[in-house]
Design goal:
The structure holds 2 protein chains of 2 kinds. Chain A is an alpha/beta fold. Chain A is built from 9 helices and 10 strands. The chains are: A alpha/beta, B mainly alpha.
């Protein structure tokens, strides 16, 4: 099967800092890929490059077998790549439907631009279908999202990502700052995305989450891929030691 | 792996955060009604103390007439305050545009009225461009414009009033019910703009969290320029109507109007920290200000005391309504 996204020889340099030093990665539909690494390992840079925030210094990206240049977040979105950033990018003083559609509001007629008239009812109906499909419960359709719990906000941010027919959803530390039941909800949502054929990149520091939710694990160390493992063939201990000492493995030091 | 432990302890923080925001939004939900309560209380008070003078149809017409220009300007100010900015230049904008219209009317007559929103919009556009692309805080830009526009008004008029034609369009616009009808039309249009268009939603979004609005790809810069242009346009229109009511463009026209407009908006429940507000609230807030002024005149209180009251009401309203949770520091 052709991967949804093929990353080959990806380099990213910020001034004198080599944030990514030749990363190869395949991302498959219907698979949850865990992306791990210590702070500064290049996780953020990698997902920001995929989601169009950063431009790579070198390397190629192929999306569904076509070579692409993801030059902006809107290009990423048009390819079906949606990112749920750690701070969620929800507008606190708007309700769930407004957040689901922010910047892409349904409107009457063919009009574009700021003066287009929004179809509030249609957007609310759409939100309701979305919540039903993902089995998400929120306190009220009218309530501003700053009244939601952390898990409810996370769920709305994930719903927004897949509302737009995402083929790849990137989740950046989705369970940080959530209560335990809410963490479970997010993990089951993640599995559901994969079961619907969506590719998921799951970034986390939480080893237990990784073991619970991912199919495959990639560990970054100093901008390089230190290891790639099948989740079912690995242990907590093995992952921890790879994260801590990825580059100390002699055979990895020679690469890149 | 220390990090793992830290992450696990974070839910407590999240819970605390949710608790504060819910508390704030309760207060937030109450603020819009303060204006209605204040209006009813004021009417009841003046009706009790001076029934024969206050409780007449004629007097209510005076109140509405007096609040009309204030409403027009405050509607524009509402959008500015919702994005979390401030426009201090509206009073001087009114004077400059009113004066230019009066001068122009000597050439083209009543048609000069129609140019007032465009002249005002130009002043607002300059404010917006300096604010957004010049990187100067809005209160500094508009404070500068307050002085610049007032100075220009005095320069072009030589310090003297310029009379408008006593008949024709200006005379019609200056008399009831015209200003009142303009307010109704504008209030409906502005409410529609705020509640039903993408523009209004983005205005709320920028006021709520500008950084996230930017991350989401909303046209934040263009939006801010548009909001200041709108405020300028409505101030200019207000200046045209005020000149029509007075029958002349005068160099001191609109002095202190920024204060009454901001007061009307804040009393109407629009938060000075941005992100929430309503046009209807602003109209009611404006009626509160003009009822207060009218009642004090009826009770024979000097206009100087009214100045004291206006300032006190503004500070009091902000004290009651400001969302302190949203301000990390107060400067």
């Amino acid at each position: 099967m052709t991967p949804f996204l093929e990353i080959r020889g990806l380099y990213k340099r910020f001034g004198s800092v080599q944030a990514l030093a030749g990363v190869d990665l395949d991302i498959h539909n219907g698979e949850v890929l865990g992306l791990l690494g210590d702070n500064g390992a290049g996780k953020s840079t990698l997902i920001k490059t995929i989601s169009g925030v950063h431009k790579p210094t070198a390397g190629t990206l192929r999306c569904e077998a076509r070579e692409v240049a993801i030059s902006s977040p809107s290009v990423a979105r048009s390819l079906g790549i949606e990112t749920v950033f750690q701070d969620l990018a929800l507008i606190p003083n708007l309700d769930a439907a407004a957040n689901l559609f922010i910047g892409r509001e349904l409107s009457y007629g063919p009009f574009k631009g700021l003066l287009r008239v929004m179809r509030d009812k249609a957007m609310e109906d759409d939100l309701r279908r979305c919540l039903e499909r993902l089995d998400i419960h929120i306190p009220s359709l009218r309530m501003h999202v700053d009244g939601f719990s952390g898990g409810q906000r996370q769920a709305i941010a994930i719903a927004r990502a897949i509302r737009w027919k995402a083929k790849l959803v990137i989740l950046d530390e989705p369970t940080a700052a959530l209560s335990v039941p809410e963490q479970r909800k997010v993990l089951s949502l993640t599995r559901q995305l994969a079961s619907e054929g969506i590719a998921v990149i799951y970034i986390t520091h939480n080893i237990l989450d990784v073991l619970a939710v991912t199919d495959r694990i990639v560990i970054l160390h100093r901008g390089r891929k230190a290891a790639e493992l099948r989740t079912k063939d690995t242990t907590e201990h093995q992952i921890v030691s790879l994260i801590m000492g990825g580059a100390r493995k002699p055979n990895e030091e020679l690469k890149g | 792996m220390l990090e793992l432990a830290n992450k696990r302890s974070e839910p407590d923080v999240a819970v605390a955060h949710v608790a504060t925001t819910v508390q704030l939004s309760l207060l937030e939900r109450l603020t819009p009604y303060v204006a209605y309560a204040a209006l009813i209380a004021l009417i009841a008070f003046f009706a009790a103390t001076a029934p024969s003078l206050f409780l007449t149809a004629n007097n209510f017409e005076v109140i509405l007439q007096n609040s009309a220009v204030q409403c027009v300007v405050a509607i524009g100010m509402t959008f500015v305050i919702i994005i979390g900015s401030i426009d201090l230049s509206v009073g001087s904008n009114m004077a400059l545009v009113g004066m230019l219209a009066a001068l122009l009317s000597t050439l083209v007559g009543g048609l000069a009225f129609f140019i007032t929103p465009f002249l005002g919009a130009l002043i607002g556009l300059i404010n917006g461009l300096l604010f957004v692309y010049g990187g100067v805080p809005s209160f500094v830009v508009t404070l500068g414009m307050l002085s610049v526009a007032r100075g220009l008004t005095i320069i072009i008029s030589g310090g003297f009033p310029v009379n408008l034609p006593p008949t024709g369009l200006f005379a019609a616009i200056g008399n009831a019910p015209c200003p009142f009808l303009i307010v109704i039309g504008l209030a409906l249009a502005a409410s529609f703009l705020l509640l039903k268009t993408a523009f209004g939603r983005y205005v709320l979004a920028v006021g709520g969290d500008e950084e996230k609005a930017r991350m989401l790809g909303l046209p934040v810069d263009r939006l801010k320029v548009a909001v200041f242009t709108l405020s300028g346009a409505l101030a200019g229109l207000g200046g045209g109507i005020l000149a029509a009511e007075v029958g002349a463009g005068t160099p001191t026209m609109g002095t202190g109007f920024e204060l009454t407009a901001i007061s009307a908006v804040v009393i109407g429940g629009t938060s000075l920290t941005g992100g929430s507000g309503s046009i209807l609230g602003t109209i009611v807030g404006s009626l509160v200000m003009s009822t207060l002024a009218n009642g004090m005149i009826i009770l024979g209180i000097s206009t100087n005391v009214q100045l004291v009251m206006t300032g006190a009401v503004l500070v009091g309203a902000v004290m009651l309504s400001i969302q302190r949770g949203k301000l990390r520091v107060l400067k």
